[in-house]
Amino acid sequence: MLSTYAEIDDLTDLLKFKNKFGGVTLQRRGRIVVASFFGAINASVLQFFCDNLVKVVGDLKGSPWGYLSSSSEAMVGTEEAEAMLIAGGKIGLQLGCVRAAYVLKSPVAIAQTRRIRERLGVEPALDEILFASESEAIDYLEAYLEQYQGQS
What we know:
seven-stranded mixed sheet
């Protein structure tokens, strides 16, 4: 039997999903949505991500916001998972995401993310928004989002 859970932590507004293979946490930090994938990225993990992205974006919907995938502990997903990540990317774009940043370690995950971004037709190139640490990625996104200050 799979051990799964999904909950909202009222103290941090953190959404979590975990099964025996992997999981994801979703959290909003100001105008940045942070997704941290860990373990195997499979259909149930990505279904939770897609289903809850709107909830995490909340009142930012339609306003410019940034996305951070801090997923250095994630293993590459299947073709099905890649298709679901593309769907999640489209949802993010529709909700007002104007820039993404990534913290990835696996060369395979980096190649997969590059393919996903190419299929979404978004810029800049992954190499320009791939960071060694979450703090560097957050700093980049905060600086980028400054140009949208006061816009909603």
